[in-house]
Amino acid sequence: MLAFVRRFLNSTLGKGIALAFLVVIALAFAAGDISGLRPGGASSDVVAKVGGHKVHDAELTKQVQQELEGARQRDPNVNMQQLIAAGGVENILQRLVTSIALEKFANKVGMAVNNKLVDGQIASIPAFQGFDGKFDQATFERAIAQRGMTPAGLREAIGRDMLAQWLVSPTVGATQLPEQIALPYASLLLEKRAGQIVLIPSAAVSQGNPPTDAELTAFYAKNRARYTVPERRVIRYALVRADSVAAQAAPTDAEIAQAYRAAASRFAATERRTVRQVVLADQNAANQLAAKVKGGTAIDAAARAAGLEAASFSDLDKAALGAQTSQAIATAAFAAGEGAVVGPVRSPLGWHVLRVEKVSKVAGKTLEQARPELVAELSRSKAAGAINAVQEKIDGAINDGATFAEVVSEAKLTAQSTAPVTSAGTNPDQPNTPADPALARVIEAGFGAEQGDAPQIVQIEQDGSFAVVGLDRVLPAAPRPLAQVRDVVQKAFVAERAQQEARKAAAAILAKVNGGTPLAQAVAASGLKVPAPTPLTATRAQLAAQQGNVPPPVELMFAMAPKKARLIAAPGNGGWFVVYLDSITPGDASGDKRAIASARGGLGQVVGQEYAEQFAEAVRRNVGVTKNDAAVARVRTTLAGQGGAAN
Questions:
Q1: What is the DSSP string of 499-544?
Q2: Is a pLDDT exceeding 90 seen at residue 212?
Q3: If we measure between CA atoms, which residue out of 436, 618, 492 comes closest to residue 218?
Q4: Which one, 137, 184, 264, 499, has the greatest CB density within 10 A?
Q5: Model confidence band, residue 154 (pLDDT cutoffs 50, 70, 90)
Q6: Closest Cα to residue 307, out of 285, 326, 324?
């Protein structure tokens, strides 16, 4: 797990300085969480200074929490402690500092971002668009308000990231490498190694006597963090859903009739056409083609004879056909009957010859036939209005200082409480019960609040449904009492002791092998009931194809000297592998153009990233960066206490 987190932090996404900031912003809004882009307010603890800019602990904390959510999208089991252990806080601070330094440097050399360009990027973010796919000001203001941001703050963040992208992109793009440099790496991929691997499992050695109370107590004290439950919170909430206002949302007969009259054209009888057309640049050629089709030649055959292809428009009404061609063509097509040849008709594209392949008549709907559709639409609209009215009333009460209990009582809502849950929404006392996705926004709001804060309104559904959320109490991170986890501790103690015994046995075999005894003979002489050594032959190219999923013993075999053996632990206290490397066959990619080209491509990405990192380092030195290690350590400690996974 820790290796996964390290790979994530050091991946292109994890190490990217400025190549995907705008995409990240858009994705974050779409996922409903961009609050990490700017701190909610000033902090008394400064973790770094970049030129004259101060980076506060609140901003760093938010960035780390956002990074954790990104890692959890790839592996839901990742928790905060693992992110911190993998150097997450330091890496994220470095990226944040680099982003600010790049902005300072860009300003220093006279670069600036046009406001219209920033506005264009904002308009392209899906979370700010209405149902028609276009930017909607009201949606924009509501989205950023829900996340505690201002338009100016968002524009500043996007402008900074655009400057960083402009600075770094040319550097990353400088990835040309000569063949002479790529050849040794291509040859290395063809290197072949042969060896043997054997597992000395913990189960094959003596498990020893049951641990004493003193041994368990000492083991528990040494591994207290392993049994620590992260911070939990009990969150109170009350739901207001569309179905709770269903009675108020039922439309009357008069409203249904009025809606039917307003949508008369929608429910009127219509016709639809399937049309084939050919577009020609010359009117005379179009006249000749139309004459052929009218004379009985198939329009496809006539088009091919002219070196063209006929296009088809299937089962469209007049408006849809006009949208795909032109209004004049749609009018001409709908004025003709089935089988008729139309045209030539002029458009900006040229001269159109059409054949009406099929005419479909769509019957209109009476009021009674349209009633179910209209009732559904009106009910949704009225429900949204009723929910908005309830929300405005509750919002007013909160602004007037009402408590959670007072709000719920006045609005006649049903209050509920979560179990003591972590920020991931799980209850450590019920580790097999997953988090309820329906309460994700409620949990997020609860962990964003402080004791004594006013209740919050949180949107939970697209139909306007919302929850009133209040923080009940906070349970700080603390280890479970030994008595409560005694069985778990005892199993861990026995497993670790067996792992140590397995290592002693594996070390004895290792000593014999490195002294000249064949691996199979050394294993047999140990007296342990273990499988015979497994022979293994592989190339570096085969390892590269596994994309980081190489078993540790195999990876070790490619980091050894020949005719030597080494040990590596099996995961989960499962024992120890003895790895013996018998031979190394060097690779030679001379004349293998495909292998060399592949190596050049892979190295180009690495070199581009290295250029970008060196450029960023030069910018940081030019601007001037200082870090407060003590403040960063306090952020790590605080985040470690928040946890993120049930134990």
A1: HHHHHHHHHHHHHHHHTT--HHHHHHHTT---PPPEEEEEEHHHHH
A2: yes
A3: 492
A4: 499
A5: confident
A6: 285
Residue with tokens 């971002």: 113
Q: Predicted confidence band at 12 (pLDDT cuts at 50, 70, 90)?
A: very low
Query: CA-CA distance, 418 to 642, in Å (whole number)?
Result: 18
- Greatest alpha-carbon span in the chain: 104
Segment 554-559 shows an average pLDDT of 92
Token pair listed for 321: 């056909």
Distance between CA 533 and CA 536 in Å, rounded? Answer: 10
How high is the pLDDT of residue 417? 94
| 245 — pLDDT class (breaks 50, 70, 90) | low
Amino acid 371: pLDDT: 85
Alpha-carbon separation of residue 299 from 250, 310, 346, 352, 449 (angstroms): 53, 7, 18, 12, 70
- Distances in Å between the Cα of 516 and the Cα atoms of 250, 510, 534, 567, 568 are 88, 10, 19, 16, 20
Provide the β-strand partners of residue 276: 312, 355
How confident is the model over 286-300, as pLDDT tens digits? 899 899 989 888 988
Q: Any idea what DSSP says for residue 434? A: P
Other Cβ atoms less than 10 A from the Cβ of 610: the count is 14
Those residues whose C-beta lies under 8 Å from the C-beta of residue 111, and which sit 6 or more positions away, are: 163, 166, 167
What are the helix (H) ranges across 109-178? 115-123, 137-146, 151-172
pLDDT score of 538: 92
C-alpha distance from residue 620 to each of 19, 100, 616, 629 (Å)? 17, 9, 6, 17
* Among 363, 381, 366, 369, CA closest to 255: 381
Q: Is the pLDDT of residue 247 over 90?
A: no
Q: What is the pLDDT of residue 381?
A: 76
Residue 193 or 384, more confident: 193
Q: Which two tokens stand for residue 23?
A: 């995409």
Distance of alpha carbon 477 from alpha carbon 475, whole angstroms: 7
How would you classify the pairing of strands 53-56 and 46-50?
Answer: antiparallel
pLDDT tens profile 615-644: 888 989 998 999 999 988 888 888 887 554
Alpha-carbon distances, residue 573 vs 67, 81, 376, 490, 568 (angstroms): 30, 20, 60, 14, 11
Taking the CA of residue 203 as centre, how many other CA atoms within 13 Å lie in the half-sphere pointing to its CB?
A: 5
Q: What pLDDT does residue 78 have? A: 75
Q: Is the peptide bond before 344 cis (omega within 30 degrees of 0)?
A: yes
Tokens, residue 352: 């159109």
Q: Would you state the pLDDT for residue 603?
A: 78
- Alpha-carbon distance 218 to 209, whole Å? 16
| pLDDT at 388 (0 to 100) | 79
Transcribe 191-260 into DSSP letters.
-EEEEEEEEEEGGGS---SPPPHHHHHHHHHHTGGGGEEPPEEEEEEEEE-GGGGHHHHPPPHHHHHHHH
Which of 144, 130, 123 shows the shortest CA–CA distance to 462?
Answer: 130
CA atoms of 66 and 358, how far apart (whole Å):
56
CA distance 166 to 156: 16
